[in-house]
Amino acid sequence: MMVNSTVFKLDSATRSLLESVNTSIAISVIYMIVTVINLVGNGLSMWLLVFRTSPKTPSVIFMINLTLTDLALGVALPFQIAYQLQGFHWTLGTNMCSVMTLVFYTNMYCSILTMMAIAINRYLGVVWPMLFRKMQKKSFAFIGCLFMWGLVLSVLHPLMTTDLTFDIPELRIITCFDVLKKEMLPTEYAWLGFVFSMVFVLFLFPFCVTTFCYVSVIRELGRYAKTSKKKKAVRLAIIVLLVFTLCFAPNNILLLTHIVIKLFYKQSLYMAYKLSLCFSCLNSCLDPFIYYFACKEFRQKLRQIIHLQNLSSSVDSMKMEHKESLHSTHIAFESPEREPL
C-alpha cells in the first residue's frame, strides 16, 4: 500500500490484512515450510555444485549463483516469520527492513534472470553447438552473473534509498514494506516506471526468452535425439515454466494491477498481492529440481550419494542380521532345549 505520510489514511484492505490473525498465521506457516525445504535442499545443492561437480561449466556457475540467492532468502525468512507472528510489527530497525525487502526481491528477479541464462545456455548447446563451444568459458558466466545483479539492483534502487518502515499509531505497530510512503518516488509516472521496469524488464521479457529457448530445444531434440533425452528436456521445461507461472507470474501481475488501480482509482488488491508474494518464495524449493534435470554432473553426484546411503544402510542391516544370527546361535548352543523324557 502507498500512503502520503503527511495525510495518512489506512485503507480498508490493508487494515484487514494487518489485523487478520488467521492470515498472519497462514503466511507464517508457509514461510516456515519454505525455510526448512529451502535450507536443506539448497544447502545440499550448494555442496554438490561447489565441492562435487567438476568442471565448473557456465551452467554450473549460473546454478551456484541461483543457489546463493535461494540460501539468502532462506536465511531472511525467519525474520519475516517473526514479523508476521508479532502482528506485522517490525522491531529490528529501518536498515534490517531494507535488507530483508531487498533479499526478497533480488531472490525473485535474480532467479528469473538466472533461469533465463540457463535456458539460453541449453538453447545454444542444442540448436547452435558451434557457437556454444566458443562461449563455454567461465568468464562469460561470471560476467553474466554480475550483469544480472547489476540490473536487478539498479531497478530496485529506490528500495535501498528509502525508509521502508511505517509507524501506524492507531494499530500500535511499525510495518516493514507493507505501507510505503508515496514520496518514495517523485511522481505517479515515476511509480509506474518503477513497477513497469520490474514487471516487464525483470519478469515478462525473461519469461518470453526462457519459453522460446525451451520450446526450441524440445523441437530440436525431437528431430534426432533419443527419447530419454527428449523426456528430460520436457521435464526441465515443465518445471521451469511451472516456477514462472505459479511462483512469479501471479505476484508480478498483481503488483502491476495493484499499483495502477491504487494510483488512479484509489482501490487496493494488497491482500491478494501479499499472498502472492508469499507463494513466490516457493521457487527456492523447486530450484534443486531444475539442477537435477539441467546438469548431468549434479544428477550423477546426487544419485551416487543416494546409492551410497542405500548401500551403507543395506550393509549395516546385513551386519545387524549377521550379529543377531550369531548371537542366537550362541545362545542356542549354550542353552539347548531339553528333549522330553
UniProtKB/TrEMBL annotation:
Keyword Cell membrane (UniProt): yes
GO cellular component terms, semicolon-separated: plasma membrane
Keywords, sorted A to Z: Cell membrane, Disulfide bond, G-protein coupled receptor, Glycoprotein, Membrane, Receptor, Transducer, Transmembrane, Transmembrane helix
Gene Ontology process terms (BP): blood coagulation; phospholipase C-activating G protein-coupled receptor signaling pathway; positive regulation of Rho protein signal transduction
Gene3D superfamilies per UniProt: Rhodopsin 7-helix transmembrane proteins
Ranges of residues in domain G-protein coupled receptors family 1 profile: 41-291
Membrane topology of the entry: Multi-pass membrane protein
Molecular function GO labels: thrombin-activated receptor activity
Covalent S-S links between cysteines: C97-C176
A matching Pfam family: 7tm_1
Disulfide bond listed as a keyword: yes
TM ranges: 25-50, 62-82, 102-120, 140-160, 189-215, 236-261, 273-294
Location in the cell: Cell membrane
PANTHER family for the chain: G-PROTEIN COUPLED RECEPTOR, P2Y PURINOCEPTOR 8
Family per similarity comment: Belongs to the G-protein coupled receptor 1 family.
Protein name, as recorded: P2Y purinoceptor 8
